[in-house]
Amino acid sequence: MKLLLPTLIVLALPAADAQTCPAAQAHSGATVPRVVELYTSEGCSSCPPADRWLSNLKGQPGLIAAAFHVDYWNGLGWPDRFASPAYTERQKQGVGVNGSRYAYTPQIVVNGRDWRGASLPAASSEPARVRLSWARPSGGELQLSAEALAGAPARIQVWWARLEDGHQSRVKAGENRGETLNHDRVVREYVRLPAWEGGGRAAWAVPVQAGEAGHASHWMAVAVDATDGRVLQAVEIGC
Q1: Neighbour-count burial for 140-178, b at 16+ CB within 10 Å, e otherwise
Q2: What is the model's pTM?
């Protein structure tokens, strides 16, 4: 089933209790990893194979994946507890920019481009144009920083997301009624930062939010060209 989307407002999810994590740092590499976004829903019968496919990407070197559960299926029989209007809006904003003509599920976006190939594109060997870093003092907030490198575009957009693995849902209604669905790389919080005029450095504080019991959090940050959504760099940190 393919649906056109209404206009929605991007919202960050409500804050939760702080998560206790050890001190750590993470820095992006010399090249750009493949960033895979899956737009999915527990109410969509064609989505479980895509969810399993995304789970198989977990831990692959040079690849960062995220599953955005959209909410426009929620009124069609089964409310997906992982869905958010913010994720629906993110998908909607990508229409046209990423090469897609409409929003659909399951949709795969690789490095800012709608992807329908049989296999993922090869990793880029070109030098990165942006450097990203996470830093987390023991028990403190996360610090996200970005630095423009040679060849960086004039305007850079940075977004971050908090992810959880190992979720399971028993679906009781809708197209997947009776199915047990397993999810990894589930986006539980997403924030799109104001566009940054490329050049020099920028930094942001990111509150450390509690993951659901039994599911440690990971944070990914992605820098894109603000004009065309092309991924410039990405990095991840976890507890």
Answers
A1: eebebbbbbeeebbeebbbbbbbbbbebebebeebbbee
A2: 0.89
